[in-house]
Fold this sequence. Notes:
Blueprint (H helix, E strand, L loop, with lengths): L1 H12 L36 H17 L14
Amino acid sequence: MVTIKAVLRIQGQFEGRIIRRTLDSKDCEGKTLLNLPLCKQIHGILTLTDREQQIIEALAQQAKDRLVVAPLYIIRLTLI
């Protein structure tokens, strides 16, 4: 219970910020925080369904639509 209260207090203090933990992160006793197995990457080729392809295309279009391209303005300076 005390641990949960401490965690909630710390989370409140860091609200809106990121706490980054790595595989080398240690607790106050020097013990490893994250005991994760090594990362295993599997490369393969996926065949998407029509629905999955449509979702990806829609998300890509939304990302393109959000891009803002500012027009080029020629600024003319007049020295007085």
